[in-house]
Amino acid sequence: MLTDIEIAQSAKMKKINEIASSLGIDEEDLEPYGHYKAKLSEELYSKLDNREDGKLILVTAINPTPAGEGKTTVSVGLSEAMGRIGKNAVLALREPSLGPVFGMKGGAAGGGYAQVVPMEDINLHFTGDMHAITAANNLLCAMIDNHMQQGNELGIDPRRIMFKRCLDMNDRALRNIVVGLGGKANGVPREDGFNITVASEIMAILCLAADIADLKERIGNILVAYNYSGEPVFARQIGACGAMTALLKDALKPNLVQTLENNPAFIHGGPFANIAHGCNSIRATKLALKLGDYCITEAGFGSDLGAEKFFDIKCRYGGLTPACVVLVATIKALKYNGGVQKNDLAKENMWALEKGIVNLKTHIENMHKYHLPVVVAINKFSTDTANEIKFVEDFCSEMGVEVSMCEVFAKGGEGGVDLANKVCDTIQFCSANASEFKPIYDTNLSIKEKVETIAREIYRADGVTFTAQAEKAIKEIEAIGFRDLPVCVAKTQYSLSDNPALLGKPKNFNITVRDAKLSSGAGFVVIYTGDILTMPGLPKHPAALDIDCENNGNITGLF
Questions:
Q1: pTM of the full predicted structure?
Q2: Three-state SS for 8?
Q3: Whole-angstrom Cα distance, residue 305 to residue 60?
Q4: How far apart are CA 411 and CA 7, in angstroms?
Q5: What is the pLDDT of residue 106?
Q6: DSSP character for 528?
Q7: Cβ distance 96 to 257 under 8 Å?
Q8: Contact indicator for 112, 4 with CB cutoff of 8 Å
Q9: Which candidate, 110, 328, 464, 484, has a CA 20 to 30 Å from the CA of 222?
Q10: Closest to 385 (Cα-Cα) out of 415, 403, 405
Q11: What pLDDT was estimated at residue 139?
Q12: Are the CB atoms for 417 and 406 separated by under 8 Å?
């Protein structure tokens, strides 16, 4: 059996100009990075202004488990299946981060025969977007420290600098550091720290910016520090906005690649979903909507994190209206939610499946709260039994949603034809019946009220407990004029609650908010729950130990 990377390396890719041509993109709007990947010009947007948008399909999932759900694989496979049934679909996904690639999970470009390629490039340096974001982030940090070194005209309090350095790699040793040591010539000594690049506010800004002007304005709006009088200091006062925009101007352009079956795919932007808002860029999504009759995109982790932020942050800022939600699950994962240990998931267990399917039920109900139709995609394994499959099919039928047994990992687009047909039929039916998408909360609520709404409606919590630190932070954010922003909850992905050990549909719990941070450039308030780290560490056996490069340049061990 071939590994994912072996399948990807044996793919018969088309030159990127052929992929662009299939979308009606002129060669003058293509900026190639080698033969098989390219960026798209700014001018392309204005050329497509008057074109009608296609239908937006969001792929999300139940809470992730060690058994894996395959959300990206289903997203890619669905786009391939759309091509097989004669539909013009464009895929829009996030870029992988080097941290997870070399850390716990290896590559992140789909799997089996439902992948985006060139897989190695996408998972490694790609077109340099991550490096540009890292450089822009750290330029601002250097400018802040230099401002204090050169006289500190703004009176920045070194104890209250809010903006951290970043690195696109898991490195726990950099979470908390001291900078400026070595005497007067080496800067002002202070405590500092690193976030992983995908948790940086610059990443969030890049993914939410409408164009270069909006990008620059959002950068200027970043809260970087407070002065000795307790007043906020913003990036525009530091004077780095122009230089940072110069570093990011090419990174703002979406990247065009292809699937194994030569379907077009945009891979652009990559904020983490348990830390940030977990969606690819608005620019890539909007471009895909103009170029295709369907845009297939995904939001990170389970729908309680990724989909909620997609609807309440990305769709709100982008003016996007989804047409359908594809909710990915596996029978193994449902049994895990029912209490079965990972090593026993291949055995039929109807009792555990019946107990664990409540997790799927809750996610379906949550998506319906946004007034959106749902199609369940069961990522099928060979160990799934006829009894288990029938149980899930009957359950979905009782809930009034379509379900498809999806085999795109093993069969590519052919294994997703049933899913593609059911998605198209669902969109057509709901378009005729005017389903009305609506976010879960109004932004004119207080920050605490918005958090309480999400906790009650999406997590199903009894209430929210705010620590003294969180109360203080929220009060300060509202006092400086940012009460009306959406909220971005940083929470464990493994549970609907803030406790990763509570599987299925937890009951009788409160969400504990330990802190809040203003991301005024991105345009949301980050709410921290549980033990969520913005700089992950490497596991005992990192994926980097299995990755190698042969003398001929061939990469092995990457997923």
A1: 0.94
A2: helix
A3: 10
A4: 12
A5: 57
A6: E
A7: no
A8: yes
A9: 464
A10: 405
A11: 98
A12: no
Query: Tokens 């790699």 map to which residue?
Result: 169
Cβ atoms 70, 328 nearer than 8 A? yes
Does the bond joining 322 to the residue before it have cis omega, within 30 degrees of 0?
no
Q: Under a CB-based contact definition with an 8 Å cutoff, are residues 404 and 418 in contact?
A: yes
DSSP secondary structure of 541-554: S-GGGG-EE-TTS-
* Region class of 389: left (phi > 0), else alpha (psi between -120 and 50), else beta: alpha
Alpha carbons within 13 A on the beta-carbon side of 162:
22
Q: How many Å apart are CA 322 and CA 344, to the nearest integer?
A: 38
Q: What is the 3-state secondary structure of 188-221?
A: CCEEECEEEHHHCHHHHHHHHCCCHHHHHHHHHC
Q: Which of 347, 345, 361 is nearest to 400 (CA)?
A: 361
d(CA 266, CA 379): 23
524 in Cβ contact with 488 (< 8 Å): yes
* Tokens 């921290």, residue located: 528
Residue 247, amino acid:
L
- Cβ count within 10 A of residue 550: 8
CA 556 to chain centroid, in Å, comes to 26
Rounded to whole angstroms, the Cα distance separating 172 from 188 reads 24
Q: pLDDT (tens digit, 9 = 90+) per residue, 286-316?
A: 999 999 999 999 998 899 999 999 999 999 9
Q: Which amino acid is at 524?
A: F
Per-residue model confidence as pLDDT tens digits over 95-137: 999 998 998 765 678 889 999 999 999 999 999 999 999 999 9
Total residue length of the chain: 559
CA 277 – CA 287 distance, rounded (Å): 20
| Cβ pair 163, 219 in contact under 8 A | no
- How would you classify the pairing of strands 110-111 and 114-117? antiparallel
279: amino acid identity, one letter:
C
Alpha carbons 546 and 559: distance in angstroms, whole number: 9
* CB-based contact 165:193 (threshold 8 Å): yes
Write down the residue that tokens 């991550």 correspond to.
130
Distance CA 44, CA 538 (A): 41
Return the DSSP state at 338.
Answer: T
